[in-house]
Amino acid sequence: MDLSAARQEGFVSKERPENDSTRSKKRLLAVIGIITTFGRKKNRDAILKAWMGSGAALRKLEEKGIVVRFVIGRSANRRDSLDREIDNEHRQTDDFIVLNQVEAPEESSNKIKFFFVHAVESWDAEFYVKVNDDVYVNIDTLGATLSAHSDKPRVYMGCMKSGQVFSEPTHKWYEPDWWKFGDAKSYFRHASGEIYALSRALAQFISINRSILRIYAHDDVSTGSWFIGLDVKHVDERKFCCSPSSTGSICTAI
């Protein structure tokens, strides 16, 4: 389905794929994807202990309407030791989404795009949330905040920011397509990448139009760019602003 057709249908297809995860079940509040990579098991263990839970605790959270999974791709050298370590960890915990995408820094924006594609095709939820694996999430506060916006059809929620576009190839945050952002070299307003949430219609829009959505060097910029020109409600929720001491917030940088 192309962009114009998706717009006419409110950004969603008339027929959603049905599988064991979506059939005959009450709609979830949220699917949370924790973006992780190879060599970050300590981070994952810390998250499991701090707020995600495992086993029965994770299933209980799902009964309350929130699914949480770690999200990772595959090694460029398929079935090598990196892949095997993740496969072994997944067999023990059953809490991964393993995407059929190469796990590499330069593929981060594609990884986020295909997380949303996978999530919306696997679970029917009000919201789909991306969070980094170095962030502590207060699930109760997150759930309450999302619920307050569940009556809005197209919500893009996060700690909204803008900032400089870096054109120097040696810079950490170099943007190869810097020239597209104009002479002022400033990004459009978008949600900071630590954590942000999309309502169901927007996640479905990404899934429908995955093949034509342009990506940039940074996943948060890429996600924000997909909604420019669309009838989307940008929610600048300051509780999504992470810092080492973000008291009262949904998330805390750790």
From TrEMBL:
<protein>
    <recommendedName>
        <fullName>Hexosyltransferase</fullName>
        <ecNumber>2.4.1.-</ecNumber>
    </recommendedName>
</protein>
<dbReference type="GO" id="GO:0008378">
    <property type="term" value="F:galactosyltransferase activity"/>
</dbReference>
<keyword id="KW-0808">Transferase</keyword>
<comment type="similarity">
    <text>Belongs to the glycosyltransferase 31 family.</text>
</comment>
<keyword id="KW-0472">Membrane</keyword>
<comment type="pathway">
    <text>Protein modification; protein glycosylation.</text>
</comment>
<dbReference type="Pfam" id="PF01762">
    <property type="entry name" value="Galactosyl_T"/>
</dbReference>
<keyword id="KW-0333">Golgi apparatus</keyword>
<keyword id="KW-0464">Manganese</keyword>
<dbReference type="GO" id="GO:0000139">
    <property type="term" value="C:Golgi membrane"/>
</dbReference>
<keyword id="KW-1133">Transmembrane helix</keyword>
<dbReference type="InterPro" id="IPR002659">
    <property type="entry name" value="Glyco_trans_31"/>
</dbReference>
<keyword id="KW-0812">Transmembrane</keyword>
<keyword id="KW-0735">Signal-anchor</keyword>
<keyword id="KW-0328">Glycosyltransferase</keyword>
